[in-house]
Hints:
three-stranded antiparallel beta sheet, alpha+beta
Amino acid sequence: KHAGDCLVVQSKSEEVNFERMNPRDRRVVHLALAGFEGVITRSDGEGDDRRVQIIPVRRAGSSGTAPNPS
């Protein structure tokens, strides 16, 4: 399921936000998606409301603004 969401982020360049998760489940998602190129994961929120976000990463030379090297 989460790998499928990762593919959506890669292809559409849209952020995906999961429902809130316990710390163990968030860690599993972060580790499972760590090997996917073009996305990063981040936990957002506080306490019991923390959730995982999958965020597209723009690479230099792709459409959009390239990261500032400074």
